Amino acid sequence: MNIESDPRSYMVVQANDFIRHPRTDKLTAKEANVAYFLISKVKPKDNDFMQITFTVQEFCQVCGDNKVSGNNYSGVKSALKSLADKSAWAEVEKGRHRLIRWIDACEVLDGSGIIHVTLSQTIKPYLLDLTEHFTQSELRYYLALKSMYSKRLYEFLRSHIHSKLENASRYVFKEFEIIYLKKLLNAENYGRFKDFRVNVLERAKREINEFTDMEMDFTPIKPGRITTHVSFTVKLKNSLDRLHASTQADRAIDRKSK
User: Fold this and answer.
1) Which residues share a beta bridge with 14?
2) Please, are residues 135 and 19 in contact by the beta-carbon 8 Å criterion?
3) What is the DSSP string of 70-92?
4) Cα 46 to Cα 49, 112, 121, distances in angstroms
5) 34 near 81, Cβ under 8 Å?
6) Which of 66, 151, 159, 244 is most buried, taking the most CB atoms under 10 A from its CB?
7) What would the 3-class secondary structure string for 134-190 be?
8) Whole-prediction pTM
9) CB 204 within 8 A of CB 147
10) pLDDT digits over 102-151, tens only?
């Protein structure tokens, strides 16, 4: 449930199919933060995409920058444009791909800093009227993760955890092929597993464990001379650890502007 006094507690709700299938948009961390911010504004009971309205000041405050300046104003407009310009092929099932976009329309009112954004109809099935097989996490967890690889791996692993509190102490074990993981994370530029491990997996582990509601660890699987799979161990943190993670996440977000 969204808590009006704390926009960082707004839930980012996405269909698991949308999260788990590779996409080719290769968003930057800033573009991803804009996307997560917009998704957090979608109301669970919406039957169709309403126009999302917010201000530059609101966006900057949520993202940890309380000083609204001309540079921030231009930066938000630039991030929205680059997100709107990006489309991606999403593999919705084996042998079936769909071209998706994030934004259909955007309007900025000079002076007031009010922004109206209409999300694309192509992502409607993955955000609205979700009754099962979806993942929801607080916006602050996404914003606190610095690396785009960390953001993407977090939501991917989080989608494999049942969210009910009675399962918070239950570990989930998942194993994935290296080729699939690199494609999912848009990290195919790391040819050697050593580089992939250091720059993607280990960094993501540090950030996810410190700043989110989830704990994770991983083990490379090497049946021969080459690492072919990675095994992950994940679970939800207990209520006390989640509270600590939220505090750490807020500090990390606010530090970005200093």
Assistant:
1) 135
2) yes
3) HHHHHHHHHHHHHHHH-EEEEEE
4) 7, 27, 13
5) no
6) 151
7) EEEEEHHHHHHCCCHHHHHHHHHHHCCCCCCHHHCCCCEEEEEEHHHHHHHCCCCCC
8) 0.91
9) yes
10) 999 999 998 888 999 999 989 988 998 888 899 999 999 999 999 999 99
